[in-house]
Structure formats: C-alpha cells, structure tokens
Amino acid sequence: APTSSVSRPPRALRKVFALDDFEAAARRHLPRPVFGYMCSYAETGAAFDANRDAYADYGFMPQVMVDVSKRSTQTELFGETYAAPFGFAPVGLTALSTYRGDLVLARAALESRLPMIMSGSSLIPLEEVAALHPGAWFQAYLPGDRGAIELLIDRVARTAFKTLVITVDTPVPPNSENTARMGFSAPLRPSIGLAWQGMTHPRWLLGTFLRTLARHGMPHFENNYATRGAPILSPSVLRDFSERGHLAWDDLRTIRKQWRGRLIVKGILRADDARMARDCGADGIIVSNHGGRQLDGAIAPLRALPAVVAACPDIPVMIDSGVRRGTDVLKALALGAKLAFVGRPFGYAAAVGGVPGVQHGVKLLTAEVSRNMAMLGVNSVTELQADRHLVRMPGR
Ligand code: FNR
Predict the structure, then answer these.
(1) Catalytic residue among 220, 290, 360, 389
(2) pLDDT for the residue numbered 301
(3) Is there a binding annotation on residue 237?
(4) Any idea what the Cα angle at residue 50 is, between residues 347 and 139, rounded to 5°?
(5) For the chain, which residues make up each domain, given as ranges?
(6) Considering only the top CATH level, what class is 11-392?
(7) Stretch 46-72: mean pLDDT, rounded?
(8) Is residue 303 within a helix (H) or strand (E), and if so which, with residue range?
C-alpha cells in the first residue's frame, strides 16, 4: 500500500491551512462569550492592530544560491533543545474553551518538543500540568501582598516546574468593555442568553462544559491568588484585584531570593525596564504587550525588540503578540529574539481540535519557518539570529 508521511488532519481542520484559519473555526465552535474572551483586545484595538502592522513594516533581504538542503528549525534555549523557535504563550481560562485545556496544550507541547507557558489564570491546578509536563513554564500574576507571593512561589517550587514567568503588564485589570459586549464576564453569570449560547453550540456544550461538570465538577480559578476558589459560573462578582497596583521592582528582587529556578519577566516594552528586570535577577525577558489586551495604544513588541536586545545582550530576549506566520517568527529572530510565543491561535486550535488540532497548527507553523528559512538562505536559527541584515524597514 502506498504510504504517505503527511497524515490527513482531522475533519474539523481540513480547512485550516494557516494559523489564522483557526479563528473562524473557533468562532463557529464556541459560544459567543467564550470566543469573545479569547479574541478580545483592549478598547479601540490600536495595540492589537499595531502588532500585525509592525510585522508588515519589516521586509526581508534574502540571500540566494545558498545550500539550504540540511537546514534545521531546532532551537537551543536555556540548555533545552526545542523543535522550532516558537512556543505557546500563557492563555487564561483555556479549560473553558477546551476540555481540560491546559492539559491539552501541555500534551501537545510535550509531544511537539516546544516550550509552553501555563497561565496563572487557569482553571486546572498547576500541579496537574506540572505532573504531565514538568518542562512547561508556569506564569504567575503577582498577588497583592508579600505573604501571598511567598505562598505562591512555595507552591510552584513544590512541583517539578523549573521556570517561573512573572507577568508585569497588568498592575490593574484591563478595561473589560469588549468582552462585556460579547457577553463575557468573570465569573460567567447564569442567564437565559448564556444557556441559549450553550444550546446552540452543542459540540462545545457536550464535549467541553458538560463533560467537565460530569467528571470534575464546576471549574474554579485555581492558581491566581487574587481570584482563587471562585467558580467560573456564578451570579457573584469576583473580588477586585486592583490591589496589585502597588507592586514594584523590590517585589521582583524578593521573588528572586526565594525562587531557585529560572525567572522570566513577561510584558516589557522598554530598554530601561528590561535592564532593571535583568538587574533584579531575571534570566530572560519576554517583550510583549499582552496581545494588545492591556494598554490600548501600547507600542508593538516587534518595534520595541531591538532596543531591549541591545540593553540586555547577556540574557535571552523573547517576544509575543501578533505572531501568526513563519515569516513573523523569522523577522523576530533576525531582530534578536531567541524565541517567539504565539497566544490566541493555539488556544483556538485546542478548542477546535484538541491535541491533534494544536499539533496541526504546530506542523503548519513549523513548515512555514522551515520553508522561509530556505527562501532566506539560512540553515539554522543561530545563523538567522546573527544576521541583522536579513530584515529592514520599510517592508512595503
Ligand atoms: C492571554 N495572555 C495572558 N498572558 C499572561 O501572562 N497570563 C494570562 O493568563 C494570559 N491570559 C490570556 C488569555 C487570552 C484569551 C489571551 C488571548 C491572551 C496573553 C498571552 O500570553 C500573549 O501575551 C498574547 O496572547 C500574545 O498575543 P497573540 O499571539 O494572541 O497575538
């Protein structure tokens, strides 16, 4: 029988030819409030749009007639070898859109040999994800008081997780107007409209929500100390967690003293902040505007990247926000990033297709990275990172 190395994707994924195609599939599959939470951005969407515009503004200067037949997308970072120079950014509440969502992403990351950051705003206890995939990274939002910070770090330290990511771009909760327009609130409030959304999305209702209820009970916020213990579906209102607003660099120094593992700071857009994070003991930085979900009008991370890389040449600088294509990953790498994280698309992929869905997305993005490395005339990720002449502005 003829054999083919290309496996056919599951039915739901036949029309997914690129990461962006997952969005339309997720929009159909998910109730409006759940999809609304995932796709949402802050206020006017200026920061969200800027993320994509920035990638379009850089153009490639490819080198031709280079033997690229032995090229590899393999990537070394923090002593680990990953299959490609991209990973899964932390996405909150994934167990609302995908049955046991964080475990789905962790399994896909483990099998694909890619870095994955588990969200602190998850509905699955961090211990379960650590047991499945000890190499995953855990992201925390800092609780409001020092005692709670200590408890959180202690809890993470008791697991097999070795890498802690602290997200610093959320001193107060973001404006929720766009998610509210889509009918989302945290927690979700029971209503006739919500029940209707569930009934008109039966695959999600049966396969995700009722399945979770039947096997594990009502999902609760599990790892975020500000919201811990709150059920995802409840008429009550979550305790406001704006008390985080007084956190400062000293808190990062305190964490550094307590946490023996690797410490990454996510959500930096300025060279001086990057230097400060490094001086407080950060082992790596993720340049990010949270996918345009926090400060509307925040600069696109790609534009901030070169200054941050120049300010911190001695630690890995990574990036996220708006990465959708292999060419985006390659542009970020050519501007000095060690790795590019992807948020929404893999969240949608998990919702639509579970582990095979995420793996399908990984396969598409890896193929784009590899193909475009060939077009650029580079054989390895390190070669790409060493050659800043491969990209320039303007790209159009
Ligand atoms: C996020 N993001 C995020 N970041 C974080 O540090 N902790 C979190 O809990 C979450 N939660 C979250 C939920 C959802 C639904 C989205 C879409 C995003 C931000 C995320 O890690 C990343 O910075 C952006 O998603 C990157 O932008 P793109 O790839 O979505 O454009």
Answers:
(1) 290
(2) 98
(3) no
(4) 40
(5) 11-392
(6) alpha beta
(7) 96
(8) helix 301-311
